[in-house]
Amino acid sequence: MLRPRRDEEFAEFVAARMNQLRKVAYLLYQDWHRADDLVQVGITRLYSHWDRVVVMDNTEAYLRTILVREFLSERRSGWARRVSLGVEPPDRADWRPDQESVIDLNAALAMLTAGQRAAVVLRYYCDLTVEQTALVLGCTPGTVKSQTAKGLGSLRLALGSASYHNQIAGRSGPTRGRDRGEVLDHG
Questions:
Q1: Which position has the higher pLDDT, 6 or 15?
Q2: What does each C-alpha distance from 89 to 21, 85, 116 come to in angstroms?
Q3: Is the per-residue pLDDT at 98 higher than 90?
Q4: pTM over 0.90
């Protein structure tokens, strides 16, 4: 049985969370256009099950799960391996001064595998526990821990903190690629 305010409730729910949804989707895809597409898919799926979902304890978690699972599903598909939209954004004027020393976390996130990126975003951006992240990703807590650890390790290397920590520890000069801050491919 349909409730009379169904569409109004749904629109209010989505409007209140749109910015958060777009940010999560952007962190996953590293592309605003694809992030918006992902949000649209998530909202559409949520709407089709709204009567059942609205009575759940945590509707936001359900929607976040839809987003992450759709992202991972697309990354596993043959389409994602065949098509690369590696288009760089156009140069544009910026009112802020050029800060070469500012860390570009988005670029470092883009280097992670889809699973590592999803785990890191859910754990540290969405502030989910290991168990909650495992439920969203549909895997075991151990997999979440290993994907998060690998992702954080790659981020540290990409952001150059490995070199910094080696200098503090008193090492002299780089001995391997990892010490020079190179990012290794974790598959």
A1: 15
A2: 22, 11, 24
A3: no
A4: no
Cβ atoms of 179 and 147 closer than 8 Å: no
User: Which tokens belong to 2?
Assistant: 């349909």
Q: What is the DSSP letter of 180?
A: G
Express each pLDDT in 123-180 by its tens digit: 998 999 999 999 999 999 999 999 999 999 998 888 775 444 444 444 444 444 434 3
Helix (H) or strand (E) holding 20, with range, is helix 6-29
- From the candidate CATH numbers 2.40.10, 1.20.58, 1.10.1740, 2.60.120, the one assigned to the domain spanning 1-81: 1.10.1740
Domain 103-187 is found in CATH 1.10.260.40: no
Q: Which two tokens stand for residue 64?
A: 């976040």
Instruction: Give the residue with greater pLDDT, 94 vs 16.
Output: 16
> Exposed, middle or buried: residue 60 (CB in 10 Å: 0-12, 13-18, 19+)?
middle
The confidence score (pLDDT) of residue 181 equals: 41
**CB burial class (10 A; 0-12, 13-18, 19+) of residue 69?**
middle
pLDDT top residue among 19 and 5: 19
* Residue 12, number of CB atoms within 10 A of its CB: 11
